[in-house]
Fold this sequence. Notes:
With 460 residues, this protein is of the alpha+beta class. It contains 13 helices and 17 strands.
Amino acid sequence: MIGRQFLRENPETVRAALEQKGVEDVDLDRVLAVDEEWRELKQRGDDLRHERNQISSEIGDLKAEGDDEAAEEAIERSQELKAELEDVEGRADELEAELEAALLEIPQIPDDDVPIGEDESENVERRREGFDDLRTLPEEVVPHYDLGEDLEILDFQRGAKVTGGGFYFTKGDGARLEHALIQFMMDIHREQGYMDVFPPIPVNSRSMVGTGQFPKFTEDAYRIGGANEEPWDDDDLWLCPTAEVPVTNMYRDEILLDDDLPLKLQAYTPNFRREAGEHGTETRGIVRVHQFNKVEMVNFVRPDESEARFEGLVDEAEEVLRRLELPYRILEMCTGDLGFTQRKKYDLEVWAPGDEMEEGPEEGGRWLEVSSVSNFGAFQARRAGLRFRPERHESADYLHTLNGSGLAIPRVMVAILEYYQNDDGTVTVPEALRPYMGGTEVIEGHDPVGESAVGAGKRD
């Protein structure tokens, strides 16, 4: 969240951020009024407490002097002050709770150099990589959802049968490819100085608040043991929507030492999100699903190293695509597409040539976001109580958090199945992945299983 002092000193900057990020349900004037009244009550409480302490010290002196009448008047005044102080503190507590809840609804302030724009159409393409030496593709590239079923490595019908829409099976070499990508990515990030973390998958509401998923985005989460629209407590549990949540909250309400920073952590998790977008070609297959695997990189850094670490994090995510030799581009998000918690964000979008989409590259196909690299400044740190102590004798300060996917596995699989497919319907395994797949060079597919395959004439 933003700091109270920043809000008091920069209300118009906050107002502009609300407009730029399209947040319309925050009454900023009300928040400022609550803060002002709260500060007045805190001052009044301090004055009352000071006066009561003075009178309390006088009562003993008056009794010692034998002035019982004055002592009784002082006692009565002390009781009046106590009652008034209780009223003032009670009202101040109510206002502070309202203020804290309101601050959780105010988005991050964008960096000054973030492009101004209303929506994703005004994001800025920074560069493209890997298009100078493209491999030869089939005359017509088969979309991954058809190719995956033809090769018997993707199974959407049985995924829907077992769980529901938005869930799927990978099978055989499809499952091997998914496992290979996870280990491949984690090995790269270990080279880059990351420490592995294997976090719990259920996360509590307090953790979701800490990283900014709650209270605004409860409708996208999978709740354990309750309906999303029902009130929730800090210790209610939700399925992990991204490893950003458990890993960032590992050190919640703790103070790290300066020597600990920068702290670079990576985690593989399955992730669960209810939001699955619109139906149709753009979301068909494994592009937008309710459960997906992802490797996440989380960084804790000193505030003065935040900007440089952001650029380094982008490069670390790119390294996966470079080694897989997949063409991609980098987009900088404009203010209207920046997100609630980010102050700056780049998206890495891989090229998937199987489906023709509007605003795709001139080579055809479409872009698929495989990583969002975000700088949160101290926004998450304030929510989660993440601090560091520059020197042991100095007071603790909020650190900065950053994260980026390294990468989202299903969409990388889409790009591989479409970009590396061959005229005969097979898929060449990227050279960098072959050691992770036991030396397999080509995915040739598998025979279908069951009577339904025989009845359909697919098996002899």
